[in-house]
Amino acid sequence: MESLNKSIITTNLDKMLNWARSNSIWPLTFGTSCCAIEMMMATGSSHYDLARFGSEVVRVSPRQADVLIVAGTIVKRMVKPLKMLFNQMMEPKYVIATGSCTISGGPFIYNSYTTIRGVDKVIPVDVYVPGCPPRPEALFWGILVLQKMIKKNSLIKSTNNKKPVLAALPEGIMLEEIHDEMKKVLMNKKYL
Amino acid sequence: MNKMTASIEKIYNKYQKFIVENVISKKELRINSENLIDFMYFMRNDSDLKYDILCDHTVVDWVNNNSFDLVYNLYSTEYKNYIIISTTIPRNKPIINTVSGIWRIAEWQEREAYDFFGVLYTDHKDLRRLFLEDDWIGFPLRKDYKDNFMLEM
Protein backbone atom coordinates (compact mmCIF):
# COMPACT_ATOMS: atom_id res chain seq x y z
CA MET A 1 0.00 0.00 0.00
CA GLU A 2 2.82 2.41 0.78
CA SER A 3 4.51 1.79 -2.53
CA LEU A 4 1.19 2.46 -4.25
CA ASN A 5 0.95 5.88 -2.52
CA LYS A 6 4.34 6.85 -3.86
CA SER A 7 3.52 5.99 -7.44
CA ILE A 8 0.02 7.52 -7.72
CA ILE A 9 -0.85 11.23 -7.54
CA THR A 10 -4.33 12.63 -7.58
CA THR A 11 -5.17 15.88 -9.40
CA ASN A 12 -7.92 17.40 -11.50
CA LEU A 13 -7.93 17.50 -15.26
CA ASP A 14 -7.51 21.28 -15.57
CA LYS A 15 -4.37 21.26 -13.47
CA MET A 16 -3.02 18.39 -15.48
CA LEU A 17 -3.76 20.17 -18.75
CA ASN A 18 -2.25 23.45 -17.54
CA TRP A 19 0.87 21.67 -16.37
CA ALA A 20 1.24 20.03 -19.76
CA ARG A 21 0.55 23.22 -21.68
CA SER A 22 2.87 25.37 -19.60
CA ASN A 23 5.82 23.10 -20.21
CA SER A 24 5.69 23.15 -23.97
CA ILE A 25 4.82 26.61 -25.23
CA TRP A 26 6.21 26.78 -28.71
CA PRO A 27 6.74 30.34 -29.89
CA LEU A 28 5.71 31.98 -33.13
CA THR A 29 7.98 34.93 -33.79
CA PHE A 30 6.73 38.24 -35.08
CA GLY A 31 9.82 40.42 -35.35
CA THR A 32 9.52 43.79 -37.03
CA SER A 33 12.54 45.74 -35.78
CA CYS A 34 15.56 45.68 -33.46
CA CYS A 35 13.83 43.64 -30.72
CA ALA A 36 13.71 40.86 -33.28
CA ILE A 37 17.51 40.64 -33.26
CA GLU A 38 17.54 39.92 -29.52
CA MET A 39 14.61 37.56 -29.94
CA MET A 40 16.54 35.69 -32.64
CA MET A 41 19.47 35.42 -30.24
CA ALA A 42 17.15 34.07 -27.56
CA THR A 43 15.13 31.67 -29.67
CA GLY A 44 17.50 30.65 -32.44
CA SER A 45 20.97 30.39 -30.98
CA SER A 46 22.41 27.43 -29.14
CA HIS A 47 24.19 29.76 -26.70
CA TYR A 48 20.97 30.68 -24.87
CA ASP A 49 19.14 27.38 -25.53
CA LEU A 50 15.44 28.08 -25.34
CA ALA A 51 14.69 24.34 -25.15
CA ARG A 52 15.66 24.36 -21.45
CA PHE A 53 12.28 25.91 -20.66
CA GLY A 54 10.19 23.60 -22.78
CA SER A 55 9.72 26.13 -25.59
CA GLU A 56 11.35 23.57 -27.71
CA VAL A 57 11.49 25.07 -31.16
CA VAL A 58 10.39 28.19 -32.99
CA ARG A 59 7.59 27.60 -35.42
CA VAL A 60 7.12 29.62 -38.56
CA SER A 61 3.52 28.53 -38.96
CA PRO A 62 0.90 30.03 -36.62
CA ARG A 63 -1.05 26.75 -36.60
CA GLN A 64 1.77 24.94 -34.81
CA ALA A 65 2.55 27.64 -32.23
CA ASP A 66 1.21 28.40 -28.76
CA VAL A 67 2.71 31.79 -27.89
CA LEU A 68 3.03 34.79 -30.20
CA ILE A 69 6.15 36.82 -29.41
CA VAL A 70 5.57 40.32 -30.77
CA ALA A 71 9.00 41.94 -31.06
CA GLY A 72 9.17 45.37 -32.61
CA THR A 73 7.30 48.50 -33.58
CA ILE A 74 3.81 47.84 -34.88
CA VAL A 75 2.66 50.31 -37.51
CA LYS A 76 -0.77 50.74 -39.03
CA ARG A 77 -0.01 48.61 -42.06
CA MET A 78 1.34 45.78 -39.89
CA VAL A 79 -1.90 45.47 -37.88
CA LYS A 80 -3.69 43.42 -40.53
CA PRO A 81 -1.02 40.67 -40.87
CA LEU A 82 -0.61 40.59 -37.08
CA LYS A 83 -4.33 40.09 -36.51
CA MET A 84 -4.43 37.44 -39.22
CA LEU A 85 -1.58 35.49 -37.63
CA PHE A 86 -3.16 35.81 -34.19
CA ASN A 87 -6.49 34.53 -35.47
CA GLN A 88 -4.84 31.60 -37.23
CA MET A 89 -3.25 30.37 -34.00
CA MET A 90 -5.02 27.52 -32.24
CA GLU A 91 -6.47 27.85 -28.77
CA PRO A 92 -5.06 28.05 -26.17
CA LYS A 93 -2.91 30.92 -27.41
CA TYR A 94 -0.80 33.40 -25.49
CA VAL A 95 0.91 36.67 -26.40
CA ILE A 96 4.20 38.13 -25.14
CA ALA A 97 4.99 41.74 -26.04
CA THR A 98 8.70 42.56 -25.90
CA GLY A 99 10.29 45.98 -25.99
CA SER A 100 9.18 49.55 -25.40
CA CYS A 101 7.76 50.11 -28.88
CA THR A 102 5.55 47.04 -28.69
CA ILE A 103 4.33 47.81 -25.17
CA SER A 104 3.54 51.51 -25.53
CA GLY A 105 4.88 52.92 -28.79
CA GLY A 106 8.20 53.79 -27.16
CA PRO A 107 9.88 56.87 -28.59
CA PHE A 108 7.24 57.09 -31.32
CA ILE A 109 4.31 57.97 -29.06
CA TYR A 110 4.26 61.63 -30.02
CA ASN A 111 4.08 63.12 -33.51
CA SER A 112 3.98 59.77 -35.26
CA TYR A 113 1.48 59.32 -38.04
CA THR A 114 1.62 55.54 -38.17
CA THR A 115 2.94 53.85 -34.99
CA ILE A 116 0.36 51.96 -32.91
CA ARG A 117 0.73 53.02 -29.27
CA GLY A 118 0.86 49.60 -27.70
CA VAL A 119 0.13 46.27 -29.32
CA ASP A 120 -2.54 45.63 -26.66
CA LYS A 121 -4.76 48.05 -28.61
CA VAL A 122 -4.86 45.40 -31.34
CA ILE A 123 -4.59 41.96 -29.70
CA PRO A 124 -4.80 40.86 -26.03
CA VAL A 125 -1.37 40.64 -24.39
CA ASP A 126 -0.55 38.29 -21.49
CA VAL A 127 3.02 39.22 -20.56
CA TYR A 128 4.99 42.39 -21.17
CA VAL A 129 8.79 42.23 -21.31
CA PRO A 130 10.21 45.76 -20.95
CA GLY A 131 13.55 46.80 -22.43
CA CYS A 132 14.91 48.55 -25.47
CA PRO A 133 15.49 45.87 -26.62
CA PRO A 134 15.19 43.31 -23.77
CA ARG A 135 18.08 40.91 -23.32
CA PRO A 136 17.44 37.21 -24.02
CA GLU A 137 17.39 36.60 -20.27
CA ALA A 138 14.49 39.05 -19.92
CA LEU A 139 12.57 37.21 -22.61
CA PHE A 140 13.22 33.93 -20.76
CA TRP A 141 11.92 35.55 -17.59
CA GLY A 142 8.81 36.51 -19.55
CA ILE A 143 8.37 32.93 -20.72
CA LEU A 144 8.80 31.66 -17.15
CA VAL A 145 6.22 34.19 -15.91
CA LEU A 146 3.87 32.99 -18.63
CA GLN A 147 4.40 29.40 -17.49
CA LYS A 148 3.53 30.37 -13.91
CA MET A 149 0.43 32.19 -15.12
CA ILE A 150 -0.72 29.21 -17.14
CA LYS A 151 -0.23 26.94 -14.11
CA LYS A 152 -2.25 29.35 -11.95
CA ASN A 153 -4.85 29.72 -14.70
CA SER A 154 -4.58 33.51 -14.38
CA LEU A 155 -4.26 34.75 -17.94
CA ILE A 156 -5.63 38.01 -19.24
CA LYS A 157 -8.45 36.25 -21.06
CA SER A 158 -9.66 34.47 -17.91
CA THR A 159 -12.36 36.43 -16.11
CA ASN A 160 -10.67 36.87 -12.74
CA ASN A 161 -7.60 38.69 -14.07
CA LYS A 162 -7.85 41.70 -16.32
CA LYS A 163 -4.43 43.06 -15.50
CA PRO A 164 -1.48 42.02 -17.61
CA VAL A 165 1.76 41.23 -15.82
CA LEU A 166 5.11 42.83 -16.48
CA ALA A 167 7.95 40.36 -16.61
CA ALA A 168 11.44 41.09 -15.22
CA LEU A 169 10.06 43.21 -12.39
CA PRO A 170 9.33 42.33 -8.75
CA GLU A 171 6.10 40.41 -8.34
CA GLY A 172 3.01 42.42 -7.64
CA ILE A 173 3.79 45.46 -9.78
CA MET A 174 0.98 46.08 -12.21
CA LEU A 175 0.90 48.13 -15.37
CA GLU A 176 -1.28 50.87 -13.83
CA GLU A 177 1.32 51.54 -11.14
CA ILE A 178 3.97 51.96 -13.80
CA HIS A 179 1.71 54.38 -15.66
CA ASP A 180 1.20 56.40 -12.46
CA GLU A 181 4.93 56.43 -11.83
CA MET A 182 5.59 57.58 -15.39
CA LYS A 183 3.01 60.34 -15.03
CA LYS A 184 4.73 61.61 -11.87
CA VAL A 185 8.11 61.65 -13.63
CA LEU A 186 6.67 63.45 -16.63
CA MET A 187 4.86 65.98 -14.39
CA ASN A 188 8.10 66.79 -12.58
CA LYS A 189 9.86 67.40 -15.87
CA LYS A 190 6.85 69.37 -17.13
CA TYR A 191 6.30 67.25 -20.19
CA LEU A 192 2.61 66.94 -19.42
CA MET B 1 40.66 63.56 -53.94
CA ASN B 2 42.63 65.39 -56.63
CA LYS B 3 40.60 63.76 -59.36
CA MET B 4 37.45 64.66 -57.44
CA THR B 5 38.48 68.30 -57.16
CA ALA B 6 39.41 68.36 -60.82
CA SER B 7 36.04 66.96 -61.85
CA ILE B 8 34.19 69.48 -59.71
CA GLU B 9 36.20 72.25 -61.29
CA LYS B 10 35.25 70.95 -64.70
CA ILE B 11 31.58 71.09 -63.76
CA TYR B 12 32.07 74.53 -62.37
CA ASN B 13 33.75 75.82 -65.53
CA LYS B 14 31.08 74.45 -67.83
CA TYR B 15 27.96 75.16 -65.79
CA GLN B 16 29.06 78.23 -63.87
CA LYS B 17 25.89 80.20 -64.61
CA PHE B 18 23.62 77.46 -63.19
CA ILE B 19 25.49 76.78 -59.98
CA VAL B 20 24.25 78.72 -57.00
CA GLU B 21 26.84 77.57 -54.50
CA ASN B 22 29.57 74.96 -54.48
CA VAL B 23 31.24 73.43 -51.50
CA ILE B 24 34.14 71.33 -52.73
CA SER B 25 35.14 70.05 -49.30
CA LYS B 26 31.65 68.66 -48.70
CA LYS B 27 31.36 67.35 -52.28
CA GLU B 28 28.11 69.20 -52.66
CA LEU B 29 26.75 71.41 -55.43
CA ARG B 30 23.64 73.56 -55.35
CA ILE B 31 22.07 74.32 -58.70
CA ASN B 32 19.05 76.12 -60.10
CA SER B 33 15.98 73.93 -60.39
CA GLU B 34 15.28 75.04 -64.01
CA ASN B 35 18.53 73.53 -65.28
CA LEU B 36 18.26 70.25 -63.40
CA ILE B 37 17.68 67.95 -66.38
CA ASP B 38 20.44 69.43 -68.56
CA PHE B 39 22.83 69.33 -65.66
CA MET B 40 21.99 65.73 -64.71
CA TYR B 41 22.45 64.55 -68.33
CA PHE B 42 25.85 66.22 -68.30
CA MET B 43 26.74 64.55 -65.01
CA ARG B 44 25.91 61.10 -66.36
CA ASN B 45 27.23 61.37 -69.90
CA ASP B 46 30.44 63.37 -69.55
CA SER B 47 33.45 61.08 -69.97
CA ASP B 48 35.29 62.63 -67.01
CA LEU B 49 32.36 62.33 -64.60
CA LYS B 50 30.18 59.32 -65.49
CA TYR B 51 27.91 59.43 -62.45
CA ASP B 52 25.95 56.36 -63.52
CA ILE B 53 24.14 55.50 -60.26
CA LEU B 54 21.58 57.57 -58.43
CA CYS B 55 22.13 56.22 -54.91
CA ASP B 56 19.43 58.17 -53.18
CA HIS B 57 16.99 60.96 -53.70
CA THR B 58 15.45 62.67 -50.69
CA VAL B 59 13.62 65.85 -49.82
CA VAL B 60 14.29 68.26 -46.95
CA ASP B 61 11.38 70.34 -45.74
CA TRP B 62 12.39 73.87 -44.70
CA VAL B 63 9.02 75.00 -43.42
CA ASN B 64 10.24 78.39 -42.17
CA ASN B 65 11.90 79.28 -45.48
CA ASN B 66 8.82 77.98 -47.31
CA SER B 67 10.95 75.73 -49.53
CA PHE B 68 11.85 72.12 -50.28
CA ASP B 69 15.43 71.03 -50.83
CA LEU B 70 15.72 68.14 -53.28
CA VAL B 71 18.89 66.13 -52.70
CA TYR B 72 20.39 63.72 -55.26
CA ASN B 73 23.27 61.45 -54.21
CA LEU B 74 25.22 60.29 -57.24
CA TYR B 75 27.93 57.67 -57.53
CA SER B 76 30.36 56.96 -60.32
CA THR B 77 31.33 53.31 -60.65
CA GLU B 78 34.07 54.30 -63.12
CA TYR B 79 35.87 56.84 -60.92
CA LYS B 80 34.51 55.58 -57.59
CA ASN B 81 33.40 58.86 -56.07
CA TYR B 82 30.24 60.36 -54.71
CA ILE B 83 28.70 63.76 -55.22
CA ILE B 84 25.62 65.46 -53.82
CA ILE B 85 23.51 67.66 -56.04
CA SER B 86 20.82 69.72 -54.36
CA THR B 87 18.27 72.17 -55.61
CA THR B 88 15.51 74.26 -54.08
CA ILE B 89 11.87 74.54 -55.10
CA PRO B 90 9.08 76.62 -53.53
CA ARG B 91 6.94 74.81 -50.99
CA ASN B 92 3.60 76.08 -52.22
CA LYS B 93 4.36 75.04 -55.83
CA PRO B 94 6.47 71.86 -55.52
CA ILE B 95 6.82 70.95 -59.19
CA ILE B 96 10.04 69.72 -60.79
CA ASN B 97 11.15 67.68 -63.80
CA THR B 98 11.67 63.99 -63.27
CA VAL B 99 15.13 62.45 -63.60
CA SER B 100 13.68 58.98 -64.17
CA GLY B 101 14.59 59.30 -67.87
CA ILE B 102 18.25 59.53 -66.85
CA TRP B 103 18.36 56.94 -64.06
CA ARG B 104 15.41 54.50 -64.06
CA ILE B 105 15.73 53.88 -60.31
CA ALA B 106 14.50 57.43 -59.83
CA GLU B 107 10.98 56.24 -60.65
CA TRP B 108 10.60 54.63 -57.25
CA GLN B 109 12.66 57.21 -55.37
CA GLU B 110 10.48 59.96 -56.77
CA ARG B 111 7.35 58.00 -55.90
CA GLU B 112 8.62 57.85 -52.31
CA ALA B 113 9.30 61.60 -52.30
CA TYR B 114 5.81 62.20 -53.66
CA ASP B 115 4.36 59.84 -51.05
CA PHE B 116 5.86 61.58 -48.03
CA PHE B 117 6.39 65.17 -49.19
CA GLY B 118 3.97 65.69 -52.05
CA VAL B 119 6.58 66.80 -54.56
CA LEU B 120 5.10 66.59 -58.06
CA TYR B 121 7.39 65.32 -60.81
CA THR B 122 6.41 66.27 -64.35
CA ASP B 123 6.71 63.57 -67.05
CA HIS B 124 6.89 60.81 -64.42
CA LYS B 125 5.35 57.62 -65.86
CA ASP B 126 3.54 56.35 -62.78
CA LEU B 127 3.37 58.85 -59.92
CA ARG B 128 1.41 56.99 -57.22
CA ARG B 129 1.96 56.40 -53.52
CA LEU B 130 4.66 53.82 -52.76
CA PHE B 131 4.48 53.04 -49.01
CA LEU B 132 1.23 54.48 -47.70
CA GLU B 133 -2.29 53.45 -48.59
CA ASP B 134 -3.69 54.85 -51.81
CA ASP B 135 -6.49 56.64 -49.95
CA TRP B 136 -4.16 58.42 -47.50
CA ILE B 137 -4.85 62.12 -47.17
CA GLY B 138 -1.88 64.46 -46.81
CA PHE B 139 1.88 64.02 -46.88
CA PRO B 140 3.09 62.88 -43.44
CA LEU B 141 6.75 63.89 -43.51
CA ARG B 142 5.93 67.54 -44.10
CA LYS B 143 6.67 69.46 -40.92
CA ASP B 144 3.17 70.91 -40.68
CA TYR B 145 1.36 67.57 -41.21
CA LYS B 146 -1.38 66.76 -38.72
CA ASP B 147 -4.08 64.11 -38.48
CA ASN B 148 -6.51 62.68 -35.95
CA PHE B 149 -4.36 59.67 -35.10
CA MET B 150 -1.32 61.73 -34.09
CA LEU B 151 -0.63 62.64 -30.46
CA GLU B 152 1.01 66.01 -30.19
CA MET B 153 3.73 66.69 -27.65
Secondary-structure topology with pairs:
The complex is a heterodimer of chains A (192) and B (153).
Chain A: H1 2-7, H2 13-22, E1 27-31, H3 35-44, E2 67-71, H4 79-88, E3 94-98, H5 100-104, E4 127-129, H6 136-152, E5 165-166, H7 175-188
Parallel strand pairs in A: 1-2, 2-3, 3-4, 4-5
Helix pairs in contact in A: 2-6, 3-6
Chain B: H1 2-14, E1 19-23, E2 28-31, H2 36-45, E3 53-62, E4 67-76, E5 81-90, E6 95-97, H3 106-117, E7 120-122
Parallel strand pairs in B: 2-5, 6-7
Antiparallel strand pairs in B: 1-2, 3-4, 4-5
Strand content of chain B: 25-35%
Protein chains sharing the most extensive interface:
A-B, 10 and 9 residues
Q: Structural class per helix/strand content of chain A? A: alpha/beta
Please tally the β strands of chain B and state the result: 7
Tally of DSSP β-strands of chain A: 5
What does the largest sheet of chain A look like? 5 strands, parallel
Written as H for each helix and E for each strand, in order along the chain, the element string of chain A is: HHEHEHEHEHEH
Beta-strand residue percentage of chain A: 5-15%
Number of domains of chain A: 1
Q: In terms of per-residue confidence, which ranges of chain A show pLDDT below 50 for 5 or more consecutive residues?
A: none
Measured as a percent range, the helix fraction of chain A is 25-40%
Structure annotation, total helices of chain B: 3
